[in-house]
Amino acid sequence: MILNETNKIDDLLLDYFSGKISDVDQCTLFELLHSNPAMKAKFNEMAKLRAILFTPTLESEKAKNFAKLNLSKSKYIDFREVRSRLLTISRVAAVTFIIAISSVGVYRYFDFAASNKDLYGCEISTPLGSSVKITLPDGSTVNMNSGSTIKYSKSFGSEKREVILTGEALFDIKKDPKKPFLVQAKDLQVKVLGTVFNVKSYGNEQTIEVNLLRGKIEASTQNGGSSKKVILKPNERIIYNTKTNILLKKKAEVSDAILWTVGKIKIENLNLEEIAKLLERKYNTSIEIGESIKEERFTGNLDLNKPIESVINFIDVDHKFKTHFKDNQLFIENN
Description:
Layout: H1 3-17, H2 23-35, H3 37-64, H4 79-85, H5 91-101, E1 106-111, E2 120-125, E3 132-135, E4 141-144, E5 149-153, E6 161-172, E7 181-185, E8 188-192, E9 196-201, E10 207-214, E11 217-223, E12 226-232, E13 236-241, E14 246-251, E15 264-271, H6 272-283, E16 286-289, E17 297-303, H7 308-315, E18 321-326, E19 329-334
Parallel strand pairs: 6-7, 16-19
Antiparallel strand pairs: 1-2, 2-5, 3-4, 4-6, 5-6, 6-9, 7-8, 8-11, 9-10, 10-13, 11-12, 13-14, 15-17, 18-19
């Protein structure tokens, strides 16, 4: 590879990871990576290494600074601010630095289905045990919870704004009346112009949950030829069952749904097996529950910034459990 092409890719990567890349340059970057297998491999490997190496550091810092956080003033790394601080750093060093500190997410581009007119797109994933805040090309921001993935096409923002979500994310959408923002979560689609809402849609869960904090959204389903549509207003929640195709809307304290952005979670009458699934994503740890205690239920707020043993002890108000680790697996049994 000639030096000029290397420098060009480094510049494009810098703009891409700092959120400053234009639609034209983004297409150019994808084309360069697609035509150069070595650069594609390097790009993906750097992203993976960054996620592995920096996750513990970022998580420890989040725990240390938790007392300073609240729901209205959470502190995250802003890609656009990072770029301005790196202008005096060499190209390669700057790109590596941005990949290392921008988030604990893994960035890569992917191939859409052949039927899609957009041949390439972007994919952003957060490893288990991590969370990240990203800025989309249109200026909208997304807080992504542990084990979540967002995909969007290379033409995002030109004609329409659409993302595909697996997992959980808090969206703060930049208003654009001419280009509605669409979130696709399995068979549920959320349509907005400018608002703040939380979507939870993990692949291994039967239900999808949407909570609206501000503005107005339209949620619609398409399952087996049967379609449904509801309009949400602030402090309303919908729960959609992908198996039964039942869509429910109700009033709710939706602020509880975004406690995860500051490392907390509210539990309402969940059994221990259901709670374990939440903890597995957060702590990236496999949990085995003894049969006799799987149906033990709990209601309350959990502080997930604390070690997992402390969280289990907090749940175990009647001192019924005993825990131990074996081969990186947590066992919870009857005491």
